[in-house]
Amino acid sequence: xxTHRGGVPEVDACKRWLLALAERGVRIGIPEIADxxxxxxxxxxxxxxxxxxxxxxxxxxxxxxxxxxxxxxxxSLWAEVxxxxxxxxxxxxxxxxxxxxxxxxxxxxxEVVIATTNVRHLSRLVDAKLWRDLVADNG
Length: 139
What we know:
mainly alpha; about 60% helix
């Protein structure tokens, strides 16, 4: 959402929220899988300004690259949720949600909350909250 152009009330509110977190010293990470999902759509749509904003986020906040360990954990998590009958994506899809969840789980030394608009799927796997709810929790 923060790669969208300004002037849209929800986008502007999300940008203010993110900056307020940063000013309070909250660790903000940009997961590589999230960058991938946003970037591919921006490229498809030819939204070069959005790509510039995405690149700026990567320079401003901590970038969290994927690793073999995360991807192997994601594969295990993918199988686990399917065995429970709770898939988060089509069986043939890459399923970025489990990759994101695996990466968050690997950050066990820190309290990790995924700020998202996709709480339904992610909250099955990790602590995930609608970013607006985090605004209320954090002032």
